[in-house]
Amino acid sequence: MRGRRIAALILIAVIGPVLPACTVAPGGRTGVYQCADWADFSDPALAFESADAVVVGTPAASTSTVPMMGVDAAVHEVAVRVVLKGEVEDGGTIEVASTPETCSDGGLYPSGDPLDTDAELLLYLTTPSTFGIRATLTPGEDTVRPAPPEDTLVSDAGGA
């Protein structure tokens, strides 16, 4: 009897953490997806230091998606005006996945896709994924900000 109880506890300890990820994903999809705890990048200097690339640019409407954390993240082409950090070409375009909020009640983008705008933005980005595109460091406003005034932009200064 004691052996069964121990085996049951071990089984619960092993399977328990996996169960929340094997339910209904945002958008009604079933399967395995990942819930993420996001770092706090409310300090622009920390976001700048943590990003692989930081650019000022204007996104276009999403025309495709890419699998990210088990869901389909919106991909936007961003016309880059200024590169503040990283290996990105000034004046070119890059593809950027808008990192989704997984495990929220409001879908992938409860407050709306932050890249779904025609406004110029300051973007803190990751390196290209296996799909060859970058992504925002986190969902939301900490790593997708309105572009600052031109005279405040300083390349590789740690806090644009």
TrEMBL record:
Positions of region (Disordered) = 138-160
Task: Name the source's superkingdom.
Answer: Bacteria
Q: What are the UniProt keywords, alphabetically? A: Signal
Q: Where is the signal peptide?
A: 1-20
Annotated protein name in UniProt: Lipoprotein
